[in-house]
Design goal:
Helix content: 10-25%
Strand content: 15-25%
Oligomer: single chain
Strand order of the largest sheet: 1-2-3-8-5
Distance between the termini: 37 Å
Length: 365
């Protein structure tokens, strides 16, 4: 199975399966001399790890990261690690697999899952949690994203859940501080309270629901990206689309741009007091012609409802028999919740990659 790597200069290769001994990634191309601590990487993994509320899977995984290569300890502070410029290998051990939960679907294709297509392509599939197609693989991406943030130390990448099912936030109540105060990474306290009741109903009915995540990257310099086949928004969209269960991506005002006029959509400009250009709006999401403008980069992605549900759904077996499939195990009623830190990581990796490409092509930043 190939195609386990993404990125151009900041290249990430992930490895491992949901029910294997461990999973992880190799980050190649990370510049030397970057200082970080394991605690900094672990903080992002803790946002993604399962079992933190009744609204996510109850699988209990510490997701403790280990750094195996590509670093040296700081002589003055042993907790600080310094990148050497060689491949950085990160490993996260699996400790709470329950493969027996999947024994009933060994020969059954679950609707909405990659079971059928995986089997058609490779002639074999790991039915225990989905193998490589499991969302557990994304833990490694979050670890890589922690390092990507260090490539541009002035950059801040934050994400929030802005919609669950049909229930959206009120943007007038947007508060970044609120994101860490609830179980949904929601910037609207009122919406978070409503979602709790709503997801309780979904969970008790043995069903699931989709969501929309918004990612905002600030402190990104202008000039990153190229206008034809290396557009910054192209790679951001591709990175986000690679996340499990993602079915749609938009940059800036996205599909809303199809509903308004050119004068409404235009991000008009003036010269500021410091003599630098000032944009009067950000419908483009911080990217014009595939190149960053220096404004905040804004991307959103839609996550479909979790396909693993206890409600029986119609499926087939590998032998061509019609069956009803009921997926046991520990699953998220809304997989979009834990997609928030994954989206942050993928955007951070895309921007770090383009930062290094820009520096390599122009010799400046």
């Amino acid at each position: 199975m190939s195609f386990n790597t993404f990125g151009h200069l900041f290249r990430v290769t992930t490895w491992g399966e949901s029910h294997g001994a461990a999973l992880g990634c190799v980050v190649d191309g990370c510049p030397p001399g970057i200082r970080f601590t394991i605690a900094e990487v672990q903080a992002f993994l803790d946002k993604r790890k399962p079992g933190q509320s009744k609204f996510t899977t109850q699988r209990q995984e510490p997701d403790a990261v280990e750094v195996l290569s590509g670093i040296m300890p700081d002589d003055e502070d042993p907790e600080v690690l310094i990148t050497t410029g060689t491949p950085i290998s990160l490993m996260i051990r699996n400790t709470d697999q329950r493969s027996k939960d999947y024994s009933e679907i060994r020969d059954r294709y679950r609707p909405g899952h990659a079971d059928y297509t995986y089997d058609v392509k490779y002639g074999i599939r790991d039915y225990r949690g989905g193998g490589r197609s499991s969302a557990r693989e994304t833990a490694a991406r979050v670890a890589a994203g922690a390092l990507a943030r260090k490539v541009l130390p002035a950059m801040t990448v934050r994400a929030a859940l802005v919609q669950v099912g049909t229930k959206k936030i009120d943007r007038a109540r947007w508060d970044w501080h609120e994101v860490s105060r609830n179980d949904f990474f929601c910037p609207d306290a009122v919406a978070a309270a409503e979602w709790a009741e709503y997801l309780d109903e979904i969970r008790l009915s043995q069903n699931s629901v989709g969501a929309v995540v918004e990612v905002v990257a600030e402190g990104v310099p202008p000039g990153l990206g190229a206008p034809v086949y290396a557009k910054l928004d192209q790679d951001i969209a591709g990175h986000l689309m690679s996340i499990n269960a993602v079915k749609g991506v938009e940059i800036g005002n996205g599909f809303e741009a199809a509903e308004i006029t050119g004068s409404q959509n235009a991000d008009e400009m003036r010269i500021g007091n410091d003599g630098q250009p000032v944009f009067l709006s950000n419908n483009a999401g911080g990217i014009l012609g595939g190149i960053s403008t220096g404004q905040a980069i804004v991307a959103r992605f839609a996550v479909k409802p979790t396909s693993s549900i206890l409600t029986p759904v119609r499926g087939i077996t590998a032998k061509g028999e019609d069956v009803d499939v009921r997926t046991k195990g520990r699953h998220d009623p809304c997989v979009g919740i834990r997609a928030v830190p994954i989206g942050e990581a993928m955007v951070a990796c895309a921007i770090a990659d383009h930062y290094l490409m820009h520096r390599g092509q122009t010799g400046r930043i």
